[in-house]
């Protein structure tokens, strides 16, 4: 081959490549995208998002919150069932509802205090007289606290029993805390008072039992939640800090979901394991109390000073015990923990709402929140549901107008019995495991949708 032929071929190739690049660059117009590409991108329409945001009405959210938190609605209670009906009626509304809404029920294992025999913590003199008893209910500061349906302070699934022994203060109930005490004190047969924080609620009792402790009392230290404020003048309803008699209720178990049907949905027909085979429970009684009652117990303790990082804001120097100081009210006294909880199986509903996707109906976006609360639940969880209902109203209205449908399927969930250990949502996941595994694109969870910086001077003249 001649050399000029080689040069010619090279120039020719470069020229063709350059023309190709130019065609690629200028030739493909963005205006000629096929329809399916536009369909796929429709939800990214910024106008839609703007329009949606303009339609959010804060007055609706406020009214939703008022309705949702009007009554205490612990899981499976009458008030909880009323909220099931409320969600169904909103999501089935002809003009503002979704494509479909239904309830899905599970028979779940729960635990409640005995109304007639309230749990308590007592101090017993050497003669057996009761010289102190913790409050069986919180002080009623406002009218809504007078509701007889407010569940008494308790720890769900804490075992029943009456145990008595010398009191020790064990900080947060971590293994290292009990180890520290055990270096100098025989913990066998003692009752430990611990504050919330540091480790999971039930772990405090599981850890305690390993050191021979026979009962646990849990309280919330004002240092940990109230910026150290404990005086009634500085707490609710003079501020939003927890009042001295306020008690944090909670679930007292390690595992999520229904405990009698691990890995399976708790349907009527599902095999249930015997209660004795449940894992992750405490085997010693435990009861939560307010910091007002905790102060009475902790500030009279004897023994060496607790380490500096164990000190809280009850207004005295914390000692570790065991037992009470001489010359004070409780000298030689012991502490008794009395727990009378009932474990029971109840029907709990998830409420599910559906908007079918236009392009990828078998791809799911899930958006959920639990519905049950320990008491009124204005923040946890109703603030989240109040917003969710406004979102479904706006999307439902667009849907019913026939002008909009999302690319993928959106599934809304209102979970039952979350406070007892994420039960409703776990049963849902166990029920639909294979579909969820293959088709779920994202899950958005909302719960407390208001949580802000502490306001040092809150204005409580217009509480919402
Ligand atoms: Zn919650």
TrEMBL record:
The chain crosses the membrane at residues 6-28. It is found in: Cell membrane. SUPFAM superfamilies: PA domain (SSF52025), Zn-dependent exopeptidases (SSF53187). PANTHER family: AMINOPEPTIDASE NAALADL1 (PTHR10404:SF80), N-ACETYLATED-ALPHA-LINKED ACIDIC DIPEPTIDASE (PTHR10404). This is Uncharacterized protein. The keyword Cell membrane applies. Belongs to the peptidase M28 family. M28B subfamily. One of its GO terms (cellular component) is plasma membrane. One of its GO terms (molecular function) is carboxypeptidase activity. It comes from Eleutherodactylus coqui. Keywords: Cell membrane, Membrane, Signal-anchor, Transmembrane, Transmembrane helix.
């Amino acid at each position: 081959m001649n050399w000029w032929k080689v040069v010619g071929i090279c120039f020719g190739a470069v020229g063709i490549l350059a023309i190709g690049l130019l065609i690629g660059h200028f030739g493909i117009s963005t205006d000629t995208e096929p329809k399916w590409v536009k369909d796929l991108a429709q939800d990214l329409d910024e106008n839609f998002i703007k329009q949606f945001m303009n339609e959010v009405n804060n007055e609706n959210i406020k009214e939703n919150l008022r309705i949702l938190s009007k009554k205490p609605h612990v899981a499976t209670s009458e008030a909880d069932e009323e909220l099931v009906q409320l969600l169904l009626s909103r999501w089935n509304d002809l003009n503002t509802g979704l494509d479909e809404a239904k309830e899905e029920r599970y028979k779940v294992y729960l635990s409640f205090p005995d109304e007639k025999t309230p749990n308590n913590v007592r101090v017993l003199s050497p003669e057996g007289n009761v010289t102190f008893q913790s409050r069986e209910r919180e002080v009623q500061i406002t009218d809504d606290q007078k509701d007889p349906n407010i569940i008494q302070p308790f720890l769900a699934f804490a075992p029943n029993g009456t145990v008595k022994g010398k009191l020790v203060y064990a900080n947060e109930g971590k293994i290292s805390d009990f180890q520290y005490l055990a270096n100098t004190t025989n913990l066998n047969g003692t009752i430990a008072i611990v504050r919330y924080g540091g480790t999971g609620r039930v772990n405090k009792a599981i850890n305690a039992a390993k050191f021979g402790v026979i009962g646990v009392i849990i309280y919330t230290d004002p240092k940990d939640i109230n910026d150290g404020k404990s005086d009634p003048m500085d707490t609710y309803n003079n501020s939003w800090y927890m009042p001295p008699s306020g008690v944090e209720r909670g679930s007292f178990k390690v595992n999520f979901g229904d405990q009698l049907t691990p890995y399976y949905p708790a349907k009527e027909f599902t095999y249930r394991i015997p209660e004795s085979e449940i894992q992750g429970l405490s085997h010693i009684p435990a009861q939560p109390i307010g910091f007002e009652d905790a102060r009475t117990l902790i500030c009279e303790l004897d023994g060496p000073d607790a380490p500096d990082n164990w000190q809280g804001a009850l207004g005295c120097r914390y000692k570790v015990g065991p037992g009470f100081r001489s010359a004070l009210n409780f000298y030689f006294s012991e502490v008794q923990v009395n727990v009378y909880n009932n474990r029971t199986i109840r029907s709990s509903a998830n409420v599910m709402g559906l908007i079918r996707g236009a392009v990828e109906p078998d791809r799911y976006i899930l958006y959920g929140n639990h519905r049950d609360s320990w008491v009124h639940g204005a923040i946890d969880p109703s603030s989240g549901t109040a917003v969710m209902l406004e979102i479904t109203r706006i999307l439902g209205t667009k849907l019913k107008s026939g002008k909009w449908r999302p690319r993928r399927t959106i599934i809304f969930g209102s979970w039952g019995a979350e406070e007892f250990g994420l039960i409703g949502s776990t049963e849902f996941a166990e029920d639909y495991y294979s579909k969820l595994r293959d088709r779920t694109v994202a899950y958005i969870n909302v719960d407390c949708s208001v949580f802000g910086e502490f306001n040092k001077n809150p204005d409580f003249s217009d509480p919402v």
